[in-house]
Every structure is written in C-alpha cells, then in structure tokens.
Design a protein that fits this description.
mainly alpha
C-alpha cells in the first residue's frame, strides 16, 4: 500500500512537473512572443520614426518648394502687373501719337490753308494798294475838282449868297426902321429899301432848297461805283491818269 501510494504520488508529481514544464514552455513561448512583439514594435517604431523623419524632411522640402512656387507666383503676378502697365502705357503712347499726328495734320492743313489764304490775300491786296494809291494821287483830287468846277454848283452857291445877303439886308433894314419908329414916334417910309416888296425870306428858303437838292453828276458816279463789286473800274475810266490826259493833249 505504501509503495503504491508512493508510486501514485510520484506519478502525480511527474504529471505536475510535466504540467509545470508545459506552463514553463508556455511562459517561454509567451516571453518569446512578447519579445518578438516588442522587437516588432520597436522595429515598427523605428520605421515610424524613420518615416516621420522622412516625412518631416519631405514636408520641409515641400514647404521650401511651396515657398519657391509662391515666390515665383508673386514674381509672375508682379511681372504680369508690370506687363499690363506697360501695355497701358503703350496704348496711351499710341493714343498720344495718334492725337499728335492728328494735331500735326490739322496744323499742316491750317498752315497750308493759311499759306493759300496769304497768297490769295496778297493777290487781292496788291490791286487794292494800287487802287488806294490811285485814290490818293488822282481819284480824290479828281472828284474834288469835279465838284468845285461844276458850273451849276457855282451858280447855286452864288444865288444862295445873294439870297442870304438880300434877306440879311431886308431884316436889318426892317429892324433899324423899327428902332427909328420907336425912337422918333413917327412912321418911317421903307419904300426906298432895295428889297422893298421882295419876299427875301422865301427867296432864301428857295435858294437853300435848290442848294440842298442840287444833283452833282460826279457824286452820282461815286454812289453807283460804291454799290458795285468792282467799285474802282468806273472812276478810273471817268478819271484817267494824268499821263493819259497828257498823251491825249499831245495827240
């Protein structure tokens, strides 16, 4: 009995030891698995750290590239703005050039028209100068001589002078006679007056009317000439130059 119990105990101890060995193996395996997992985790962490380093490096490079691209874009925008400004300046210069060309063309046209007008004016002024010179040297004197030498004018003026003298004499005689009558208180006989019975006032009025309405042929000529576009033609034909008169006299 004792031996059997001992054997049984030994078997139980063996089983216990086997079980213990299995647990130890299991623990060893778990330890190995844990160490492998630890190593894997460590390797993974190292790889993660390396990836993170690479990622940080890549990000730094990307940031640098972004900064370079941003700077390049800013430069491009500036260049674009400068190009747009240059285009605007060029357009303004073209507009100014066109305006300058237009003003230059207008100025040249005005200058040409002015030159044409000057030549035209000179061609018109020269005859006017000759006409004015003729009027100064010949025309005015001829008109004045024609007026002064007009016989009917002499007669009308003489008649007006006589009528004026007669009327002045008659009025003076009448005034003096009235003074004598008033002073002497007597009637004064005016029959001995040279103008007795003559209406000198009416005669003077008639002489004035005759003088004022006197028609001078030369003045009619001047009036007609002034109404004509070529107002110098008729006077120069009526009053030829003195040389022509001398030639006619010689003929």
């Amino acid at each position: 009995m004792g031996l059997r119990n001992a054997i049984n105990n030994l078997k139980a101890e063996v089983e216990r030891l086997k079980k213990q060995d299995a647990d130890i193996e299991k623990l060893k395996q778990e330890k190995a698995d844990a160490e492998a997992a630890r190593d894997e985790a460590r390797s993974h962490r190292e790889r993660s750290e390396q990836r993170e380093v690479r990622t940080c490096t890549t990000l730094a490079l990307k940031d640098k590239e972004i900064d370079e691209v941003t700077s390049l874009l800013a430069e491009q925008e500036q260049i674009k703005a400068e190009l747009e400004s240059a285009k605007n300046d060029l357009q303004l210069e073209r507009v100014e050039k066109a305006e300058t060309s237009h003003r230059l063309a207008e100025t040249e046209e005005k200058l040409e028209n002015s030159e044409t007008a000057r030549v035209t004016a000179e061609s018109q002024v020269e005859p006017l100068k000759n006409d004015m010179l003729w009027l100064k040297d010949r025309g005015i004197i001829s008109v004045a001589n024609s007026v002064l030498n007009f016989d009917e004018l002499d007669e009308t003026v003489a008649h007006l002078l006589v009528a004026t003298c007669n009327d002045g004499y008659a009025q003076g005689y009448a005034e003096c006679s009235q003074h004598v009558v008033n002073a002497l208180k007597v009637d004064w006989d005016t029959s001995s007056s040279a103008t007795h019975g003559v209406d000198t006032e009416a005669a003077l009025a008639a002489a004035k009317t005759q003088f004022n309405t006197l028609q001078l042929p030369v003045m009619d000529l001047v009036t007609v000439a002034l109404q004509s576009e070529d107002f110098m033609t008729q006077p120069t034909e009526v009053f030829p130059d003195r040389e022509d008169d001398d030639d006619e006299d010689l003929a």
